[in-house]
User: Fold this.
Amino acid sequence: MGAVLDLSRGIHALVKKSDASPLTEPRYEVLNPQGYMRDVTLASLAERPETLSGKVIYIINSWPVGSGSELDEILSKIGDFLKEEFPEATIVTRAKPSPYHTDDREFWDEVAHRADAFVYGAAPSCATTTYALRYTGLLEKRDVPGVPVIFENLAEDARLTCDEMGMPVRWVAVPYPPVKITGARMAAIMEDVKAALTAPLRQEERQTGTRMPSPPKRIACLGTFDEINAHFCDRGLTDGFPIVPPSEERVAAMLRGTKHEPEEVVTTTMWPAQWNVTVEKVAIVGVMAGCKPHYMPVLLATVEAFSKCGSAVRSTNSFSYMRVINGPMRREIGMNSGTYALGPGNHANATIGRFLSLAVTSLGGGQIGVNLMGTQGNVSSYAFCFPENEEESPWESFASEKGYGPHASTLTMFATGWSHCGNYLGGGLDDFARAMAQFTYPSGMAILVSPARAREWARSGQSKDEFKEYVWSHATLPMKTFRQDSYYKKFIEPELRGKASQQSRWPRHYLGLSDDAVVPVYPREGIQVVVVGADQNPMIQGWKSDYPTTVSIDKWR
Assistant:
């Protein structure tokens, strides 16, 4: 009891001393993490005709009719309205004959040569809206006036897209969902479409030249830890968690993790706004994420890879990006490839994983509710980074498959994270393959195999390629079921029906198969395998993913 009383008096004395001489909270001057906006070449809209009488007007739907664009009926009514207003006009209704994001040169040539004006329907999709605006701009530059029809809840994305294009495309926004549209509002929409195609250009719609944005200020703010975090959070530059203040000293220390100069440009296309990013900006965000200086080559490789494959982040879908590290760098920075490799607890895995979510907003101009429109979001966006367990794998590493030598360090990025199945303990792969076959738009699959499961297959004489072949050949559906999926109509069928010069990832003979034919739903080359985890159980899990992008880490040392 005496010892407790003595301790109590000591605490009381310390509190009194603190009251008498309060500690001064340190203040930091911190660097601005925001990337550099690109110079924009301004372009004029196409001249408008005084009347559409006698003109050919294309009504273009980004998605095939009946595949969920929710604009089918509205576009049909626009066609009827224009025909009634201009009886001598010719109305041509077309669904874009290729996936909405494809730069279809032959189709643009058709529109440019045949159409005098066009209406371009988007969809309740951020990405589709962006592409509808961009391709409208492309046709406007070919002197064909057009108007995209978009949904009101994606209007901010449309404004930002026009700003990035340097072209004030005239778009008409309609309520979402369309059932909200009253008769009076529908009549107003029709008049807006007509005006967009015929009203003379305003002065701001004729501007040309170059717009050069001012560079971001070097110093973001001066304040305490809490004040800095409030400043960054209020401006949408954090992931919601506290950040490490990126002071000049911390950033200088981070820069010592690479031989590359601070002013060197890492990329000119950091998504979603395609900003320019320097080595120093990467270091600033690395500090914010809590990374250590010797992680810098991995952070620079992350930005390089994301610039090549990160366009899908601008979507109403809820993407995330899985990163796999291979080679000596894994051990140099102390990453965890074993027990709990995909979970929290390892500093390198966690902070390098976190870095990307901060980079998307700070370095890439991402704004939630504007160009980051994931309807539900995705928890794997916070941190989804781990090394392959090469030491315990009986197979060649993922990087070796991609042509890198055994001493090369690489980072591979998968666009993934919106569908997942597992874990499967023991037994055959049939259950796993059947589950993966149910994923919509099965363009690719990342299979994460524990070392124990990989060794089971190796002991039976099966190679890594045979493992992938087994999963691919058993992830099957009847063609009738496959064709009923809306994503089949939006993506796969247009690809199958595409130009002979364009290679389809799925076999073209699928088009002629009967409904009861059973087929693999994944492209054969879309199956990827990474060994990760420990030996507690022969686990396996799968992530729906698109084709991976692999870059060198060593080039950024």
Remarks:
- Residues 2-20 form the longest helix (19 residues).
- The chain is about 35% helix and 20% strand.
